[in-house]
Amino acid sequence: MSALDTAIKLITKWEGCKLEAYQDEKGIWTIGIGTTGSWVKRGVKITQEKAEELLKERVNQDYEYLKKFYLKLNDNQYAAILSFMYNVGRGNFVSSSLFTHLKKGDYEEVSRQFLRWKYITVNGIKKVSNGLLNRRIDEKNLFLKPV
Question: pLDDT by residue (tens digit) across 7-63?
């Protein structure tokens, strides 16, 4: 299975799919398989095909973006990073210490960095999200899994 296919499978596992816009646990309007954007509002509906298309488009864009850094990653490592990036957003990803260690090739530290991203902030209070923690464990394990 390719990095993109593995990433899509992992993202879908954790994001699920809802064809009508909803607010996630942080209150962000979301639709499909974790898609957000200014067009996602109460009452918006999409088809399953559109949800999958939006996911694939975003994962492909993120993959092309990552390739610009000439990282020496195997397919599992790319898939784990793509899942992480999809969830936290490209801006948060590129400013993270995880990305800094990734560019240095310090993969052991990268694997540890996944678990730092388990918090959500609700009403100004930072708390551990069990869903995020479990997702990060999956991403870390996939990152460390040989191809």
Answer: 999 999 999 999 999 998 888 999 999 999 999 999 999 999 999 999 999 999 999
- Residues near 110 by beta carbon (within 8 Å), at least 6 away in sequence: 98, 101, 102, 143
Give the pTM.
0.94
Catalytic residue, chosen from 15, 20, 49, 52, is 15
Active site includes 15?
yes
9/20 Cα distance (integer angstroms): 21
Kindly state the helix (H) or strand (E) to which residue 31 belongs, with its residue range: strand 29-32
Domain 3-144, classified CATH 3.30.420.240, yes or no: no
